[in-house]
Every structure is written in structure tokens, then in C-alpha cells.
């Protein structure tokens, strides 16, 4: 921590605000946080540091959106997510920082492309794709969240494919990520990517998450469904391109 410059701390503070905004209103905004943390810290260590802030953001998201959730829609995802977490842990044990970023970026771009293709002209009742889609997105979500806390864009595409209304999208996502991020803690501790220094850094950044959550809440009242979906897709693509190119 003492080696971080003022610019580095400013980037981390901005990332913390982005976490709060992403949890409260714009799910794709956490790709900015992923990019900033990866730019300041080694990729694997940044994953552990960001995880704690995401859990703080999850608490605010549940408080704001829990009443709008479709919790039953998450049940088919659980087995696939667990498989993805195990695969992601194995990948982290061997992959370099550069490969970690690029693999996640490529996966996100593919997920966006497939989701938009499947939504085109699809019946809203079947756009989600049922068990096959839940298994595919769930496995990718578990893998990407374990490797780089990047399940937000993957699961955003799943909820968009299933045509969730904006409020239900945010409420269901809040329950999903609260569960999955808590489940990641034992994996992250075992891999050595959450350490005491990480917790101290996060303690200093928590006010940024809180500020971002309330900022996101104010933004949400100004969004309609179409604008919300466009912003989510645009933020996901931007974050994916950064991970591939960086």
C-alpha cells in the first residue's frame, strides 16, 4: 500500500465508486472497476482486493432492489456456477496475469455477440434459452467471477437474453452476486489472493462504494428499459475490449 502513488489511489477510489454504481443501477459499470484495479495492482491480487468491495456493494444492492427479485430464476444456475468456480480456481493456479485478462475479455465479447444474436427476433418467453442457457451462462459466470470478478457482464447478458425488466434484472442480480461473491471467499483465501493488506486497502475504499451506490440510485430513476439495456451492452463491450488489448 505504501508503494502506491497518489494517482494509483485516485484510480482505486474511482473504481470503488464504479462498484457502487454498478450494483445500484448499471451492472456493466463494474468492468471499469476491473480495468482500474488490474491497471494498478497485479491481475490476480486485484481480483482479491476487488472482491471485498463487491460484497459491500452487494449489501447495498440487496437493500435497494431485493423486493423486485425473481429468486426462483436463479435455481437452474447454481450447479453450473459451482462448476465454473472450480474451473476458475484451477485456471488461476496456472495462468499468467496477461492470459487471465485476455481470456476473460475474449469470453465477454463472445457472450455479447451470442446474446445479441439470440435476442434478435426471439420470442420473449423463450429468449432465455431454458436449461441450456442457464448451464452455459452459469458456468461462464462462475469461471469469470473466480478469475477476474467479471461475471457481471456475463450474467447481465443472461438476464438481457431472458428479457428481465430493469427492476427485476437488478433485484435478481443482487441476490445472485451476493451469494456467488460470498462463496468465492474460501477459494480466494486458499489461493492467497485475499491477505490482511488487501482488507486494509478495502477498508479505506469502502466510502467510495457507498457514494457510488447512492449515485447509482439517483441515476436509476432517470433510466428507461431501452436506455438501460443499451448502457449495459456498451459498458460490457468496452470492458471486454480493454481486457483483450491491455
Automatic annotation (TrEMBL):
Membrane topology listed for this record: Multi-pass membrane protein
GO cellular component, one term: plasma membrane
Predominant localisation class: membrane
Lineage, top ranks: Bacteria, Bacillati, Actinomycetota, Actinomycetes, Micrococcales
Pfam families: TauE (PF01925)
Keyword Transport on entry: yes
Protein name: Probable membrane transporter protein
Location relative to the cell: Cell membrane
Amino acid at each position: 500500500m505504501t508503494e502506491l502513488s497518489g494517482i494509483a489511489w485516485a484510480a482505486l477510489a474511482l473504481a470503488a465508486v464504479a462498484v457502487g454504481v454498478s450494483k445500484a443501477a448499471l451492472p456493466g459499470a463494474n468492468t471499469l472497476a476491473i480495468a482500474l484495479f488490474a491497471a494498478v495492482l497485479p491481475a490476480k491480487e486485484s481480483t482479491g482486493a476487488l472482491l471485498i468491495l463487491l460484497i459491500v456493494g452487494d449489501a447495498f444492492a440487496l437493500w435497494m432492489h431485493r423486493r423486485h427479485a425473481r429468486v426462483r430464476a436463479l435455481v437452474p444456475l447454481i450447479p453450473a456456477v459451482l462448476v465454473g468456480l472450480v474451473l476458475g480456481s484451477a485456471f488461476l493456479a496456472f495462468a499468467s496475469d496477461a492470459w487471465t485478462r485476455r481470456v476473460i475479455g475474449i469470453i465477454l465479447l463472445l457472450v455479447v455477440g451470442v446474446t445479441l444474436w439470440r435476442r434478435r427476433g426471439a420470442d420473449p418467453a423463450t429468449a432465455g434459452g431454458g436449461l441450456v442457457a442457464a448451464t452455459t451462462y452459469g458456468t461462464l459466470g462462475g469461471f469469470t467471477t473466480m478469475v477476474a470478478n467479471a461475471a457481471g457482464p456475463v450474467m447481465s447478458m443472461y438476464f438481457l437474453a431472458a428479457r428481465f425488466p430493469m427492476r427485476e434484472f437488478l433485484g435478481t442480480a443482487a441476490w445472485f452476486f451476493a451469494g456467488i461473491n460470498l462463496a468465492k471467499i474460501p477459494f480466494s483465501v486458499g489461493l492467497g489472493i485475499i491477505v490482511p493488506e488487501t482488507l486494509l486497502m478495502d477498508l479505506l475504499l469502502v466510502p467510495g462504494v457507498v457514494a457510488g451506490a447512492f449515485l447509482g440510485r439517483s441515476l436509476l430513476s432517470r433510466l428507461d428499459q431501452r436506455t438501460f439495456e443499451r448502457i449495459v451492452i456498451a459498458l460490457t463491450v468496452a470492458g471486454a475490449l480493454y481486457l483483450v488489448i491491455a
